[in-house]
Structures are given as structure tokens and as C-alpha cells.
Design a protein that fits this description.
alpha+beta; three-stranded antiparallel sheet; 4 iron, 4 sulfur cluster binding; metal-binding; two-stranded antiparallel ribbon; 4Fe4S_Fe-S-bd; 196 residues; Alpha-Beta Plaits
Length: 196
């Protein structure tokens, strides 16, 4: 058994301060004078805090606003922005989709439905291309899987509707979207082609 050793510590009783302030606490906090309460509140709220707030506002007034006037001004969009779906055409006017059904297979939400048939020239084209936009999660897998860049997610994000049925896109609606946004879609794909 080891012996217990007591070490005496030297207690310093000298103070570093030269001045002491004597504070007299109130005996009963409920008897605090209401006059002092109101004077303190007026000083803290009206004088001190109001001038601090006014100074903060005046520093922000002359700065450039951080917001835009949305319906009339639009912010910049990335070339990789994933908005409303569109089916593209070749410059000759023929639709690009070759009905490989890769987009239908890769869609995690199972929002795409494709039916196809063979044409007289032996090429396969879609007879039905439907997207349920209420199921779509805008992941962009369909665009990445497409070997001919037929299905893309365009730059349009303003496609709210009044009914659920208007968000069930058929082939004609998708082709119209592609015709409408072809210039922006082509420039976005060109800007992003190095990273794909």
C-alpha cells in the first residue's frame, strides 16, 4: 500500500484590482421601482436599439439590391439546368428518337412510357412517348441515357398547370417543346459537351 502524501498549496490572498465596487441588491425584486423599469426600457428600446437599427438600415439603403423583379427579370441558368422535358428533331425535321427505350428503362420514377413500331424503310420509331411529369424527379438520367440526344430537359421552368391531366405529356407536346426551345437546348448541350 502506497502512503498518502498531502501537498499543501499556497493560497494567494492579494488582489490584482485596486478598486472595488459595492453593489447593494434590492431586498425584494418585486419591489423594484416602476419608474426605473420604464426609464430603462425607454432608454434601451427607443434610444439605443432604435438608433442601432436605423444605422443598419441606412448602410443597406444605398447598396445594390440583391433581388430581381422576377416576372420581368430572369436570373441566369446553368447549361446543366434540368427543366421541362422536350423531344428534339434533326435539322431535316425528322424526330431523333430511335425507340431504344433506354430512357424508359433507366427512369427511377417509371414516368416514361414508350411504344414503337418498325417503319417501311426498316427504321424503328415511336408511336407513343408519354411522360407523367407528376412522377418525374428531374434526375436527368433519361437525357444521359439517350444515345442520340432525343430526350432532353430544357431551360423552361415555368410550366405550372391548373389540372393534373395537363402534366401528362404525350409525344406531340414533347415535340412542340423541342421545337420551341431548340436554340437554347442546342446551345446548352454544346456548352456542356466537354463534360459528357
Amino acid at each position: 500500500v502506497l502512503p498518502v502524501v498531502h501537498i499543501a498549496k499556497k493560497i494567494v490572498t492579494t488582489s490584482v484590482r485596486n478598486k472595488y465596487y459595492y453593489v447593494v441588491p434590492f431586498d425584494d425584486p418585486l419591489n423594484y421601482p416602476w419608474k426605473d423599469i420604464t426609464e430603462n426600457a425607454v432608454y434601451k428600446l427607443l434610444c439605443h436599439q432604435m438608433f442601432l437599427s436605423l444605422a443598419l438600415v441606412m448602410t443597406k439603403v444605398f447598396r445594390e439590391p440583391a433581388t430581381i423583379n422576377y416576372p420581368f427579370e430572369k436570373g441566369p441558368l446553368s447549361p446543366r439546368f434540368r427543366g421541362e422535358h422536350a423531344l428534339r428533331r434533326y435539322p431535316s425535321g425528322e424526330e431523333r428518337c430511335i425507340a431504344c427505350k433506354l430512357c424508359e428503362a433507366i427512369c427511377p420514377a417509371q414516368a416514361i412510357t414508350i411504344e414503337a413500331e418498325e417503319r417501311a424503310d426498316g427504321s424503328r420509331r415511336t408511336t407513343r412517348y408519354d411522360i407523367d411529369m407528376t412522377k418525374c424527379i428531374y434526375c436527368g438520367f433519361c437525357q444521359e441515357a439517350c444515345p442520340v440526344d432525343a430526350i432532353v430537359e430544357g431551360p423552361n421552368f415555368e410550366f405550372s398547370t391548373e389540372t393534373h391531366e395537363e402534366l401528362l405529356y404525350n409525344k406531340e407536346k414533347l415535340l412542340n417543346n423541342g421545337d420551341k426551345w431548340e436554340v437554347e437546348i442546342a446551345s446548352n448541350l454544346h456548352a456542356d459537351h466537354l463534360y459528357r
